[in-house]
Amino acid sequence: MLTKLTMILAGTVVWTAAAQAQDYPETNIRFGHSVSQTSTSSLADDWAAKEIAKRSDGKVTFQMFWAGAAGSPAELFDLISTGALDAGALTPSWYAANLPFFAPLSSAPFSYPNSSAAIQIGNALLADIPALKEEADENKLHVMRFAQFNEYHMLCTQPLRTIEDFKGRKIRSQGDYFPIVLNTLGATPVTVLPGEFYESMQRGTIDCIILPYDFLVSNRLYEVAKYASEITFGPIVAHMSVMNLDKWNSLDPSVQKLITDVQKEAEAFDEEVTSAANDKSLATLKENGVEVLPFPEQDKLEEMMPDMLDVWSKMMADKGMGDEASSVVAKWKELR
């Protein structure tokens, strides 16, 4: 059976032959990314950039700036929104003050049944709920694609097998919702920046970290902690690949269509490589002496948690945006 990735690559040959007849205007798009070119969440952006260049015979190019080369994560939103940078990968929850309707897509645990559903829900909300399109327009953003993230699991310096084992543990936290989860379980949430993961575990600043298996491997955390858990907090959206709206509107319609078509295919590419990275990384953890422990109390843990979409909706209501948030939650729950 052909995988989605195989079918995309096979179809590309036909697509490219047809596309060569199209005379695209010379176009360069500067794209900033906060992580490296080899990170799992970068692979589809890299593929899309190369595919667009190939299909346009080099006329339409994405100049990729990896690992913060165009600006730090804190700077990327303003750079793209103002047009100082043409495009980039934005994790919306990092900019919740500017993107409150997009923010839960990349931050709410237990909110998607699987990684591909996260992308489907993001696409449906953007298409069907006016508040998201309005928010994007207000911030001068055109959303090209939502990117996948694998499910969040745990890595600890000591075994974690039960809910009781959470009590008293110092666990790396993020955003508005993981602190709720950890406090409910009797753990202590600790804020640790991405560049500090390794040292924080090595020094005992944190006892556990919550990340997808592939991010545990890419940060080499198996060197400082040897107990992973099959516990899952679900996936989230990794980021949105966006373009400055004025830049998008200035593009020739043929270029807009080329980018839109390739970005749609990049979703399937993303699903394939993200799933493969999860399986490969789990094997890598085991090869490096990490014991992957079952977590038989998963259902019990989830029953203890509030619905994070309801938590977000209440937060939005407190800010005077309750009606729009209710529409988002109703659609989201319908789809998940």
From TrEMBL:
Residues 1-21 form the signal peptide. One of its GO terms (biological process) is transmembrane transport. The keyword Transport applies. It comes from the Bacteria. The keyword Transferase does not apply. Gene3D superfamilies: Bacterial extracellular solute-binding protein, family 7. Belongs to the bacterial solute-binding protein 7 family. This is Uncharacterized protein. It comes from Aquibium oceanicum.
